[in-house]
């Protein structure tokens, strides 16, 4: 009789040395994602506070950067939660659902990064426009 509690999502028992190593590495990946979430939250907090201290916080570029970081943070959290839920999951349907959520999280991270880049370009252009050029 198969005891599904002792089976990983690849169908091999956790007592198999290779399966134990796979599970250990998957836990490392999950931990790494949570460390990234912590870093994202620290970055978001710092940028939010800087944004509110700015003399002119209404610049489009700075708003886009902050929005991009918010989107990345949400995506990173989704991915970390999903990957953690996949650890040791034996139900294929639940595993596939969690993988879809992880992919959605990755997508949000990418969209947030792209939005942040666009904001950075706007800030750079605004800063460059302030520089007066001296023509000899």
Question: Can you give a write-up of this model?
Answer:
The chain is mainly alpha-helical. The chain has three helices and no strands. The radius of gyration is 22 Å and the shape is elongated. It starts with 16 loop residues before the first helix and ends in a 6-residue tail after the last helix. The model is unreliable at 1-12 (pLDDT under 50).
C-alpha Rg (nearest Å): 22 Å
* Tally of contiguous helical segments: 3
How many strands, which pairing sense, and closed or not: the largest β-sheet?
A: none
Average pLDDT? 86
Beta-strand content: under 5%
End-to-end separation = 87 Å
Structural class: mainly alpha
Q: Tally of extended strands?
A: 0
Share in helix = over 70%
Describe the global form. elongated
Residue stretches low in confidence (pLDDT < 50, at least 5 long) are: 1-12
What letter string, H or E per element, gives the SSE order?
Answer: HHH
